[in-house]
Amino acid sequence: MNNNQPLPWDNKRFWNWIAVARACHVVKQRLAKELAPLDIKLPHFDILANIYRSEGISQQDLAHKLLVGRSNISMLLPQIEKRGLIERRPDNGDKRVLRLYLTDKGREIARRGLDIEVGLIEMSMSTSTPEECDLVGDVMKRMIANMEEPYD
């Protein structure tokens, strides 16, 4: 960067990007703190919540939803399974595929965690009107779509 180039922090978009990144970080920190009494870490909660929503999801589909590799999921699932929160069962049509199901204990933890998450969402978004919330969502969806496009 030479002395004639504008600095990143002179760009309003830079500060808006920092605000988005900070908001994401703060929300994750707060959610992790709020989940602590349930003795569940954020990556485990993400897995439980997605299985709760899509009972019988395959490990591969879960990894895709969570934007992580299958190896990450393969490392986390045994930890959750050992705690008696999930069960892995073979797919009826393809024995190579494992389907994920919550146990009663896992369903209870997921439900309580979702209640915590919804409470945090309501609290954090309460400073905005419904129209502003929609606008934030629309902008984030456009940003995601723009970032996911392949580079030419």
TrEMBL record:
Keywords: DNA-binding, Transcription, Transcription regulation. GO terms for molecular function: DNA binding; DNA-binding transcription factor activity. PROSITE patterns: HTH_MARR_2. The keyword DNA-binding applies. It holds the Pfam family MarR. Residues 1-145 form the HTH marR-type domain. The keyword Membrane does not apply. Coiled coil: none annotated. Signal peptide: none annotated. SMART domains: HTH_MARR. InterPro entries: HTH_MarR-typ, WH-like_DNA-bd_sf, WH_DNA-bd_sf. Gene3D superfamilies: Winged helix-like DNA-binding domain superfamily/Winged helix DNA-binding domain. This is MarR family transcriptional regulator.
